[in-house]
Amino acid sequence: MPKSYRVAILGATGAVGTELLKLLESRNFPVSDLKLLASSRSAGRTLSFRGESIAVEAVADGCFQDVDILLASAGGSTSRAWLPQAVESGAVCIDNSSAYRLDPSVPLVVPEVNPEAVREHRGIIANPNCTTILMAVAIWPLHQVQPIRRIVVATYQSASGAGARAMEELKHQARAILEGETPTPEVLPYPLAFNLFPHNSPIADGGYCEEEMKMVNETRKIFGAPDLRVTATCVRVPVLRAHSEAINLEFDRPFDRDRAREVLSHAPGVKVVENWQSNYFPMPIEATDRDPVLVGRIRQDISHPNGLELWLSGDQIRKGAALNAVQIAELLVSEAGRTQRTPLSSTTSAN
Ligand code: A2P
User: Fold this and answer.
1) Degrees (nearest 5) of the Cα angle 109, 11, 239?
2) CA 213 to CA 191: how far, in whole Å?
3) What's the gap in Å between 64 CA and the centre of ligand 1?
4) For the domain with range 5-99+320-339, which CATH number is right: 3.40.50.1010, 3.40.50.720, 3.40.50.10540, 3.40.50.150?
5) pTM, whole model, 2 decimals?
6) Per-residue pLDDT tens digits for 277-291
7) Distance of CA 142 from the midpoint of ligand 1 (Å)
8) 163 close to ligand 1 (CB < 6 Angstrom)
9) Closest ligand 1 atom to the C-alpha of 74?
């Protein structure tokens, strides 16, 4: 009888949390007991898991005592406030927030890229930023064939990246504008319906916003390439769910586009979507609710002999967040089975 685990989701009522719930069920993750945690606003709400109704609890002191794996997706400040206690209680935390991603003692994992990094955890494993995960899955296989020297990426990010309330706001806003009203945005800073704006994360030094710097720093950490040159422009677009990215890669010698297509057509987590005759390429609407990152428009960069262009769409809530986190949990389980060590034990005790 395979071992089962006591799992908790922190942020269970959110866009990523509800997807985590679905994925644990559809991927038949070995759950013996499931605890759903959110803020006190949601206490008492029920959510369904394997046909059973489970009441959401407000996160509180002592609530991690009986938890083996905590999947956290309730924002950075909530993770900072609660994860140390969860680790102290013996849970392994897979954190979807940015709180610990660049901490050198915390592995930052995309299972298709650096699965071995999970072995180094000390109680927390970080799930990367959504746009970074989607890009990493698509370009890592190429990087394995010929090292990438420079990445120039522009993103087209959906409302889902700002959570369930932003998705609702986009729907209401679109309806209201069509009825001649001028709704006041409450979740996002500017109207998103029939509009777009540079990503709304805080601007850091040099004019890059935090989301852009996440793509730079997290890609370097996941690839184990601290000097990789990366520049990003992140934009919020009026798409409900699934992000898209235009990526320009520079290698140290030419990378033939047919060879790139061939490599990507066998790459884990990637689906090549291209029909040049009908101008049919990845679209967020087709990436929605799907696991693979859709990649297409693979073409030679006419402005640089060593450049390659590609385009992708990927479900931000699924592979960009919840699926990646559940895949990390699956890695932990298979690692525990492989090593016959105490399941999920960390390499060193948490500090
Ligand atoms: P709640 O629904 O009770 O506010 P999203 O990213 O879709 O906005 O979801 C955020 C998730 O994080 C929700 O489940 C939300 O719970 C939860 N959350 C937000 N703030 C806190 C907090 N301070 N403590 C616990 N959970 C929180």
Assistant:
1) 75
2) 24
3) 17
4) 3.40.50.720
5) 0.96
6) 999 999 999 999 999
7) 37
8) yes
9) 12
